[in-house]
Specification:
The chain has 344 residues and is α+β, with helices and mostly antiparallel strands. The protein contains 9 helices and 17 strands. It has helices at 51-63, 81-94, 105-113, 119-127, 134-142, 218-231, 248-268, 276-281, 297-316; strands at residues 9-12, 15-21, 29-36, 41-44, 71-75, 97-101, 156-158, 163-166, 169-175, 184-188, 193-197, 236-239, 272-274, 284-285, 290-291, 320-325, 328-333.
Length: 344
Amino acid sequence: MAWARPVAEAVAPGVHRLPLPLPMDGLTAVNVYLIDTGDGLLMIDGGWSVPEGRVHLDRHLADLGFTVHDIAEILVTHIHRDHYTLASVLNQEFGTRVWLGDGERANLAVLQSNPRSGTLSTQLLQETGADHLIASFDDWLRVQPDTVRDWGDPTDWLHDETAISRGNTVLHAIATPGHTRGHYVFADASRALLFSGDHILPTITPSVGFESVRHEQALSAFLASLERVARMGDYALMPSHGPAGMSSAERAEELLAHHEERLEQILAQVDDGETAYKVSSDLRWTKRQIELGDLDPFSRALAVIETEYHLELLEERGVLASDLVGGVRFYRRAERGSAATALL
């Protein structure tokens, strides 16, 4: 993947994309962005606080003639470790100002008490009829870093349409819940750039609702956020994973179409009393169209949970109904003649 090579890329005047490594992660790298405002550096996302991440950040900065002391503010798109934790460490070491979405308060509180918390994922796997996947998911959790220090409080909490102004740059924070409940994107109107975090990615479909505190109707929120970004007009996409420069509006529309197609595929698998695990087992995953059982333990759990959120949205739309039996949720076609016959 050319975009993941550890080389800083100029994406606009005064703006660089800095790929930082993600060891133990299939995504390979995370993009953080550096804006030279003429009055200190603004950084979008912080990266993961692993030694390799810090080394590469220092190296990128040195290549551009800076050090970490030149970073004035870090705007974090969401709470996931590859976005927040290095920003938190820099805040604690140097007093760097860190912004995080107000919607992440509950997630952060859980991570501060237990950085390896998988309680919600375990509950969801039980509810989706996939309790046999819990052991392998727990094995994955056990080898993850366990550093409470990585999850300090931000300096400031973001609210929708907050404007962050520094030097020659104004960024508008746009709430885009879905990937997580407190996800934000940052629009730079003067440069026509959209720093999209994991809300819009150019080559993969972002996961939905993988967080520490359950977000009811996470997929519904995600689709509404995509529609909001599409209405903003066309920006050059600055994603967290993948190459920069795609049309933000075009990609938002592609993702909306993808999820409507996926909802149709999922609906076709439901007859009478299907669990999210059963439905996810009947689907194919990733661009390679592989079976659920061939995914790694983390991706397999993620796929089952995402199927649950799709089923949840179909129930919200009135097409399906569900029953919770013995702690497991079963979905069925809604009765004819009710609101359940509404079209997708």
